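Re: the request from the purification team.
They wanted to know what the chain is likely to look like in 3D before they choose a buffer screen. I agreed to run a prediction and write the result into the notebook, where they can find it.
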Amino acid sequence: MPHEIILTETSFRKLQEELEYLRTTKRQEIAEALRRARGFGDLAENFEYHAARRDQGILNGRIAELEKTLEIAKVVPDDARAGDSVGLGSIVLVRDLETEEEWEFTIVDPVQADPVNDRISMQSPVAQALMGCRVGDTVEVKVPDGTVEYAVLEIRH
């Protein structure tokens, strides 16, 4: 995990709410499942007990991950704008200079990322290459298939 992660206020609150839910409600549910499973007898061959212990381990891992993320997060206002250059929250229209295909996407923090719906994380290679660019700029981006060159056609906020 990086030393700092940038999150919008909304994403930060969302993670805080998830953490609170996991620490209280979900932790109690798993504790109850463990109590019930212990009542079934021999723990060595008790599937319910082992499943609840596995769930407890996954839960504790997620809680630790959320705590660390919230600890190192740099929170920016939801309406943070980058002026006339690409930044967090920008809606960017680019053209692939080889295929001439256009692609419009929004650059979001990692919590809001949803590549299927063209919401790409600011930590992705494409977003990293475009940060600070202006309309008319071109960038090369290393992708799994090689390198893609994009021209920035439009930036909206």
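For the purification team: The chain has three helices and seven strands.
Please add any questions underneath this entry.
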